[in-house]
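Researcher: Quick sanity check before group meeting.
Model: Go ahead. Protein one:
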Amino acid sequence: QELRPKSLDIRQEELGDMVEKEMASTSEAIEDAVRRIEEMMSQARNESSGVKLEVNERILNSCTDLMKAIRLLVTTSTNLQKEIVESGRGAATTQEFYAKNSRWTEGLISASKAVGWGATQLVESADRVVLHTGKYEELIVCSHEIAASTAQLVAASKVKAEKSSRNLARLQECSRNVNEMAANVVASTKSGQEQIEEKDTMDFSGMSLIKLKKEEMETQVKVLELEKRLEGERVRLGELRKQHYVLAGGCEDTPEDGEARPAPAPRRGILKKPPIAQKP
């Protein structure tokens, strides 16, 4: 008791209540996230169409699947946590068990908060993407954060759980499922972003004749600039290759005493000029 940090003595009797409250709060956050995604889905169907509606539906469906996976993860984690307390507390009360294992308890609370926070941030990012006020990259980052916080929750639970525990095996399976669903969110977000950007870049239906001509001239200028730059890089590549062959040949012909010897006369047809990359 004397060796334990004094900061842990503050309100230790409330740690047990904090765990239960935090797990319940995380579950509520997940339920609220699912409801908000359903509302966004309905709003997207009313306010968008075509490619944008297809992209929004695909992203929101993947977010819904991720939320369901997180909800199952939290439920399984709660069951495992109760199992750990029941098997480890002995004659002590639940509050005394949490106080005795305060480090583990605080880690469990922190991990649960991280999962709930990640779910909330994901929904807010999805809302902004659907409303075209956010960035697709935000969704990708949130998905990575959820995967990381899930790993944190599993690690915190695994410390005290029995290796043969069925709830631990279920929790690990839930964690893999969450990671898979998070990867699906990333994939649907990236493909949706490419679809939207391609549509926006290639949609010329609303342009006037003058605007089209101006865009055409600007594109021609860019093409000429890129072709000139490409030609310069091809010449540079050819010169680099020639110099590389010269240096490589010089190194092979240098004797051990360091004195350069005249290279033997090459046979006709053997030594050829290195090929220079040509335009396709």
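Researcher: Fine. The other one?
Model: Protein two, sequence then structure:
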Amino acid sequence: SMDSTLHYIHSDSDLSTNSSFSPEEERKSKVQDVVPQALLDQYLSMTDPSRAQTVDTEIAKHCAYSLPGVALTLGRQNWHCLKDTYETLASDMQWKVRRTLAFSIHELAVILGDQLTAGDLVPVFNGFLKDLDEVRIGVLKHLHDFLKLLHVDKRREYLYQLQEFLVTDNSRNWRFRAELAEQLILLLDLYSARDIYDYLRPIAFSLCADKVSSVRWISYKLVSEMVKKLYMASTSTLVVDLMSELVEKFCRCHKWSGRQTFVFVCQTISEDDCLPMDQFA
């Protein structure tokens, strides 16, 4: 019955009315010479939504899990064989399938290279950024790994979206904000001093005032690294402005917790040698 179904799907009359590709073009787009073609065809057929529902509801998740390995085996020159399947999985109704892809998109970007990443993965990545928290955490945990592979101009576009990671479906999800602070420390190397001051500084100060101490502790490290980065930049006025804001916002805070934050940030700055002592004083 499978043969007759496949024969019907690939019949000339059906494809000529419903597809912009001829049967020959459709077949060629999935052909490669790295592994037996029948094996690849079998893998690609597993992502068919109707089959996944009737055979095994978990099958799409397994396909998503193994997709980077398949892409690595086939090589970037054969990405055209997998592109449609990847997009199908990235829009799967099950969030677990999308989550699996979100956790591995940075690995796939390394395999595909910058051109294919910019054209085919960035749109999927942008979709994951707006997804459920369970999916967003996948791209957040490897945010630095993915953004460092993009061109500078494309990378700067994400500066405007980093603020959105402070908003979660569940405000008690503090690990999400802790992960954001960890990633921002890594992202300092990817952006200019002006971009750090304009876009990352407000997020860092917000995290320093978080209700959960684990988030605050990572944020103290983030602010100290920010001070170090701005001091080493040629535009030294930015670090003075940053320290002035630290004094104003935390040292002179009417809440004791704010003043305590100032002390902890000072401790981290001095311990990590982020500033010369005369500048610190």
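Researcher: One line on it for the slide.
Model: The longest helix spans residues 95-129.
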